[in-house]
Amino acid sequence: MFEKGGTPLLAEINSGRSVKVLGTALLNKGGKYAALLEPRDTMLLQMLRNQKQGETSLTLPLPVNGGSNHIARDRLSFLVNGVNRSVKTSYRNNRFQFDVKMKIRISITERLFLFDMEQDYRKMEQMISEELRKEFANLVTKCQESGTDPFGFGVYARAYEYEEWKKVQEDWPAAFARADVRIVPEVSIIGDGVIK
């Protein structure tokens, strides 16, 4: 609650007959409810915060048949085995800029479409990387629009651009809403299941 370089978050649950986790509640700098991240976005948030522990399962739509028609047979499921992240921070054109490079190791668990993994696994890595890039960009935009920074990018701004940080530290979420965040995931497939 007192960290100026980010905004608080906590698990949102619904208790009735049974307890159900709805996702992650994003709070503004005053501690008031701002938005809800669903479980899928919560997994992406943990990857961006470098807090992913253990294996995480994700399913993505991939345009494998030449178009962007995301139907059920064009989905790919995989386990995220590891994430390494680096953040480069700068201040240009009156706004903070964050370049996040992520190296993500995955094991494919389910593929419901034909694809020659032996010949074109690099193409598959690029398709997954591009889809993850879009998902991360949507997550960052959602947080910026809700006036929150659950990633803690303000900590990087304070560490690497302190003179500019001092000017906005009392209202970091507003400065973060104007920031440019570029996330570049680089996926490496380390496993493709046991069935050929």
Please provide a written account of the structure.
Helix content is 31%, strand content 38%. It has 196 residues and is an alpha+beta fold. The chain has one domain: Nutrient germinant receptor protein C, domain 3 (GMP Synthetase, Chain A, domain 3), CATH 3.30.300. The strands form two sheets. Strands 4-5-6-7 form a four-stranded mixed sheet. Helix 3 crosses helix 4. It is globular, with a radius of gyration of 18 Å. About 3% of the residues have low confidence.
Describe the SSE topology.
Blueprint: E1 9-15, E2 19-27, E3 33-37, H1 39-48, E4 56-61, E5 75-92, E6 95-111, H2 117-145, H3 153-160, H4 162-168, H5 172-178, E7 180-191
Parallel strand pairs: 6-7
Antiparallel strand pairs: 1-2, 2-3, 4-5, 5-6
The neighbouring-strand order within the major sheet is 4-5-6-7
Q: In CATH terms, what is the fold-level topology?
A: GMP Synthetase, Chain A, domain 3
Q: Give the oligomer, counting copies of the same chain as homo and different chains as hetero.
A: single chain
Helix/strand/pairing category: alpha+beta
CATH class equals Alpha Beta
What are the low-pLDDT stretches, counting only 5+ consecutive residues below 50?
67-72
User: In sequence order, what are the helices and strands, one letter per element?
Assistant: EEEHEEEHHHHE
**Annotation, overall tally of beta strands:** 7
**CATH architecture type:** 2-Layer Sandwich
Measured between the Cα atoms of the first and last residue, the distance is: 51 Å
Overall morphology? globular
What are its keywords?
globular; 196 residues; GMP Synthetase, Chain A, domain 3; four-stranded mixed beta sheet; alpha+beta; 5 helices; three-stranded antiparallel beta sheet
